[in-house]
Amino acid sequence: MSIQVEFEVSAPPFRWDEAGVIRIGQSRVTLDSLLAAYHSGSTPEEIAVQYSVLHLEEIYSAIAYYLSHHQQIDSYLEQRHRKQEQQRSEFAQQYNLANLRQRLLDRFSLKEN
What we know:
Helices cover 59% and strands 5% of the residues. By secondary structure, it is mostly helical. It folds into 2 domains: 1-71, Arc Repressor Mutant, subunit A; 81-113, no CATH class. It has a two-stranded antiparallel sheet with strand order 1-2. A hairpin with a 5-residue loop joins strand 1 and strand 2 (22-24).
């Protein structure tokens, strides 16, 4: 006698936004952020406290998917990191951020005098 139970298979709670960033469920929390917390040693329960908009099952599902597909996700994360670095560099060049702190301090000191 065998017992058959049907299970519903569900996809990870990922959605891609208009910029191509993976977000968790209907929240604005990125997969990058969730995995950064996970890699820093946070448990799913601690992540749920940190990101209260996420449901615990979404967090476990995202981590389980990552553990099963870590090469693909790591590749995605590396691409995101490279893109962020490129954008930072372009922004710094475009807005001349070199010595910005000193220029602001100089401007502030002129107002005081």
